[in-house]
Amino acid sequence: MPRSSLKTVTTVFLASSVYFGLAQGIILNSLDSLKANYDYIIVGGGTAGNVVANRLTEDHAVKVLLLEAGASDTGVLEIEIPFLCTRAAPQTPWDWNYTTVPQPGLNGVSIPYPRGYVLGGTSSVNCMVYTRGSKADFDRYARVTGDKGWSWQNMFPYFKKSEKFTPPSDGHNTTGEFNPSVHGFDGFHSVSLPGAPTVIDNRFNLALEQLHGEFIPNLDDNSGSPLGFGWSQSGIDGPSGTRSSSAAGYLATSIRNRSNLHILLNAQVSRLLPTGNEKGVPIFRKVEFRVDREGPLRTVTASREVIVSAGSINTPQILLNSGIGNAGRLKSLGIPSLIDLSDVGENLSDHPLTVLAWFVNSNETYDAYYRNSTLQAEEIQTWESTREGAFVNGIAQHIGFVRVPDNSSIFHSSPNPSSGPNSPHFEIFVSNYLLGNTPPTGNFLSISAILLTPGSSARGSVKINSTNSFDVPIIDAGLLTDKTDVPLLREAVRSILRLSSAPAWSDYIIGPANLSQPTITSSDAEIDAFLRANTGSAYHVVGTSSMSPKGMKTGVVDPDLRLKKAIGVRIVDASVLPFVPAGHTQAPTYAIAERAADLIKAANLVSS
Ligand SMILES: Cc1cc2nc3c(=O)[nH]c(=O)nc-3n(C[C@H](O)[C@H](O)[C@H](O)COP(=O)(O)OP(=O)(O)OC[C@H]3O[C@@H](n4cnc5c(N)ncnc54)[C@H](O)[C@@H]3O)c2cc1C
Q1: 335-339: long-range contacts at Cβ-Cβ below 8 A with a sequence spacing of 24 or more?
Q2: Which of 121, 285, 364, 527 reaches 20 to 30 Å from 106, CA-CA?
Q3: What EC number(s) has UniProt assigned to this enzyme (predicted)?
Q4: Cα torsion for 307, 464, 312, 424, to the nearest 10°?
Q5: pLDDT surpassing 80 at residue 8
Q6: Contact yes or no for 272/113 (Cβ under 8 A)
């Protein structure tokens, strides 16, 4: 998100918004129904956790408890309505409301660092852009973990398994807008193309034609070969015009009603507790938690495994609280070290994001929906009654992925951080409004840049600073701290400036929204200064519980996602990825969780 939008809580005008606590149904509405023991306990009902909950309970004999710290997602319009996604987080009741430490790469500024605090986790508050990354990203995961199971070839079926590609909300003919052969149609995560046309669509496509040498078309960026430009796909269920979070998809009513799945909301896990050892290797099958923030500490036990899916910030926090992490640092805090694993919370990797925007000569942009409460209420009514109109669209209508040439001077003194020759360095996406705080007047076009390949030293961390498991963690996002980061993002800015100079925009773009915004004649130094002052995060946080080969001392989990040096614990969420992929992270998280469920099922077959 642009940094300006992160500093203020945006006022949202909503006709109605409901915030449920414990819901009825198989979601437990009383602790009396909670058992002392389950086969599996899943910590975190977020993007990955709900996939695992769904898949493990396909076998009715398997009893699963899902503990989620946040509340129900049901009836929250900011979550359900795709257009309102930027109002679901940050700094809302559905956000953990974290803030980073001052970021040296961003002129020393701290930035908000949202994570979903609600059933569905971050899939309930994200911007829904659906991209998988490149084939080379997954082949690199396979290489560095020593497990071919993480290769593109093996993960491609899991992308398809998780996905339900749906027609767009307006039912328009999508021939030529995507490649059906690379999509799944029977999964739980709905994906669709934009469901309402916008005033910029024709101009954007014309601009691509006019600049064809540089901006090549790509029918579908989710084939493993993302380079090029095309229509943006989002995690939106087209026919209902609704966000497809993991709660809406993987925990649809029929799944929530499974009697072998218990879901406890408002249940925050503090620690994993040791339950014995096998040949000196500690076993952790007990989970400590509290309900409703104030409640007493309780425990519950798993007979098979505890699966930690609390996300890239909270998963390492829970491990550190439990005495699993850098032994010296834990001891200095007064926490007994149970497993010395110094990479817990380290290696945080994220995508920097910068927004460029222009005043435009049109009153058909979406800006007015954010600033005018009457218009917003009317559009919500349209959405509620027809599931059509502007509010079925997410943030991006058009998207593209670009690779900087291998002979660029950027790579003369530093290694090229890309995962492979067909993998992009940056992404560009186009929005029909100002992505950020909406000013009182004006109509806008935004074209945003995401640096997809942060360099190897651009790594942050998650640390704890007290023995109180419920204190907020200390987060360093490490944004723009590698030598290659700003030069590569500068290339993205130059690319956007060329795109915005295409004749197609000549009677549309009036001038820059921000006077300090670079122009086509800006020097490198001017662009770099703009980037340091105006870059935020795309919130694609990974790496804090990284996979590494079995037996390797670095890393946090083995390639089968089992916690190293322990028995009984697996980690299944975005934190296990050792590098951030060259794309947004929710689609990879769904695919990882699908594979994890198969790994867990297979291990259980062997052990029984
Ligand atoms: C604002 C925003 C916009 C984004 N936009 C996009 C996008 O457009 N496209 C995209 O692909 N990706 C996007 N992302 C990133 C993507 O959504 C995440 O990478 C992905 O959803 C992470 O999934 P996860 O399972 O690792 O964690 P989460 O989905 O965050 O799940 C973790 C769950 O665990 C729960 N939890 C945490 N701690 C505890 C505890 N102690 N006890 C019990 N429960 C706990 C949380 O409440 C949460 O429900 C965005 C992220 C943000 C924040």
Answers
A1: 335/467, 338/274, 338/282, 339/282, 339/563, 339/564, 339/565, 339/566
A2: 121
A3: 1.1.99.29
A4: -150
A5: no
A6: no
Whose CA is closest to atom 35 on ligand 1?
44
Cα–Cα distance for residue pair 527/533, rounded to 1 Å: 10
Q: Which residues contact 170 (CB under 8 A, 6 or more apart)?
A: 195, 196, 197, 388, 392
Is the CB of 264 inside a 6 Å radius of any atom of ligand 1?
no
With the most atoms of ligand 1 within 8 angstroms of its CB, the residue from 126, 427, 546, 570 to mutate is 126
Whether 269 has a binding-site annotation, put simply, is yes
**Token pair for 453:** 């390949």
Q: How confident is the model at residue 26 (pLDDT cuts 50, 70, 90)?
A: low
Residue-by-residue DSSP string for 405-474: -TT-GGGTSS----SSTT--SEEEEEESS-SSSPPSS--EEEEEEEE----TT--BEEE--SS-TTSPPE
Task: Assess whether pLDDT exceeds 90 at residue 60.
Answer: yes
* Any ligand 1 atom below 6 A from CB of 577: no
Model confidence at 213, pLDDT cuts 50, 70, 90, reads: confident
pLDDT value, residue 16:
29
Q: Is the CB of 436 under 6 A from ligand 1?
A: no
Domain ranges (residues) in the chain: 31-73+250-348+544-606, 79-110+165-241+350-465+473-537
**Residue 21 scores a pLDDT above 80:** no
* pLDDT single digits (tens) 452-468: 999 999 999 999 999 99
Alpha helices, DSSP H only, in 31-171?
47-56, 77-80, 135-145, 152-162
pLDDT of residue 608: 53
Q: Model ipTM?
A: 1.00
What superfamily does domain 31-73+250-348+544-606 belong to in CATH? FAD/NAD(P)-binding domain (3.50.50.60)
* 486 annotated ligand binder: no
Tell whether residue 392 is among the known ligand binding residues. Answer: no
